[in-house]
């Protein structure tokens, strides 16, 4: 396994970089590797057929991306860039094949990891059809609290309203209205280019979640989507490190 460099580093065959837009975005170009996020946060986005950039997910330490590249040798379907100085550990497909041959149990972890993404995408599609834009904005804020350390009394989410709008599939005007309303309720406070979450529990309840990150539609005894995501990725990370 190779450590990919921070945003200032150079790329090599085993150390793909993460290009940064605007200020300091570094992008993953390699399409033959899985990345485990060691530090920092990265954004995963896709360009629509209309040329617009749609922000899909934000990943943080303990998360992974590029898992499909381990089993499908094709062009990446999304772009990943660092939102801040970040470091990942890279697993090339050829290295992973050797690991699978030596430890067959790794296959079960990989299947769990691959199965999670369609479930998550199905959930987002369902939200887009049946949930209001306000609820989607609140749910993305709750998700981001976990990414940016939910253990802290106040969680700073350094994303712009345009980025939040893209994550939630809403307009910037809707995001602005939702954030202004929540600031009035005292659950968040706003500063330039960031949202500071003061009461994630209240946000979760207003978003229709039983607890932070947990959907009410989850079957009895099931883990929350976010908790399952972390568990599977942590399992893979533990087998590889």
Describe what you observe in this structure.
The chain is α+β, with helices and mostly antiparallel strands and 241 residues long. The chain folds into 2 domains: 2-102, Jelly Rolls, CATH 2.60.120.10; 131-230, Winged helix-like DNA-binding domain superfamily/Winged helix DNA-binding domain (Arc Repressor Mutant, subunit A, Orthogonal Bundle). The chain contains 7 helices and 10 strands. It has helices spanning 93-102, 106-130, 133-147, 161-168, 172-185, 200-206, 225-240; strands spanning 2-4, 33-39, 42-47, 53-59, 64-65, 79-82, 87-92, 155-157, 188-191, 194-197. The strands form 3 sheets. Strands 1-7-2-5 form a 4-stranded antiparallel beta sheet. The protein has a 3-stranded antiparallel beta sheet with strand order 4-3-6. Strands 8-10-9 form a 3-stranded antiparallel beta sheet. A hairpin with a 2-residue loop joins β9 (188-191) and β10. α3 (133-147) packs across α4 (161-168) and α4 (161-168) packs across α5 (172-185). The longest helix is centred in the middle third of the chain and has 25 residues, at 106-130.
